[in-house]
Amino acid sequence: MKLTFFLIAVGLILLRLCYPQLEMWHNDREQGTMITKSDNYIEGIWWSGKIRLSDDEQSIAEISPGGHLKFRENDTMLRAESDLQGRISYTLKSGNEELPLNDSGRRFIARQIQKMIGLGFFGQERAERIYRQGGVTALLSEISRIKMEGAREPYLKLLFNSDSLTSPQRIELLQIIDRSDNPSEKQDFLKLFTPDQLRDSAVAQEWLHAVGQIGPSYIKKDLLVHYIDTGLTTDRFDTVLAIAIRFESPNDQQEVYQQLAGLPAIQVHDSVFVHPWLSAVGQIGPSYMKKDLLLHFLQPDSSRANGLPGGQFSAVLAVTGRFESPEDQKEILERLIGLPPTTDEEWSGLIRATGALQPDYIKTVLLLKIAPGMPRTDSLRAAYRISAKSIEGDMDYGKVIRAIE
Question: Dihedral sign, CA of 267, 271, 277, 282?
Fold first, then answer.
């Protein structure tokens, strides 16, 4: 019991060290609280009423009657209050000293305002003014000042609503988003990139890089599935596949691979795309997931009258051979028999794969399905007999052997 309490205490200490800041928000349009705390440090903003910053950002231009604004950083404090006529009064403290509202006091106010700006306060008003004065370039520059990621939203939204962003500016915007430690915020903003914007190869590559840096695989999966559905170009195929391979969730991988399987390049069996896709599918853990993806890939198609091209038959066999479930293997091998194989090498691989299966009844069923369509060459007959000899039951063995007599 003592050891348990000790371990819990150590865990809490480590958690505190790894995540020293706690950011608490409670706000609506004209009332809220924003606090950042860590050991021996507190920084916070409390406000009520509509507050307008001066154009030079050195003072408070207006607080609606009865409203207030308070900023505290440890033992430094600024409080601005508006009476019922809208007149603003200040309380300024540095440690235990109360400061007068002289030139020094006004410089103090200006410094505290800059700290609040860094926390993202005054965001909506500032973002609109900066955009009016300096356009996209000024907004991009300003975002780097904002320490609290959630407070960047007014600036980012204006950028996304702008129709004047160049490709380099979109890339810079993506790099800003990529630096966020908030996966949900990153997802929300990455979703705002349109298919037209992502047709730019450089922008798409930076977008995919940002997606790949997100932690939770379900977020990456949602972004990739939408991207594949609306605008994936063939030159980004390998990048998408490389991101999905690193997912920690097989279910999320399966969704992405299923979406990729619908691409025209895979539908027409282009081996440049099919082989990497099959390799990725083979790395998924549960065999039923691999089986479902392969069955989708091998679904009946009139264009497959000549079988699978470019070694794809053997690649499917290789993936199937790593299934842990013989029943799942049986489903894939039955589909391959129905294609059917087009070369002696493919027939031979199919026969050997069947002979390696257990239990015997699966092997028997499959060999009996292979026999009618198999070319009667000496080498294939020999391979068939070898697989048949692994059947222990005399009755099943006899049926299988008679099938090729």
Answer: positive
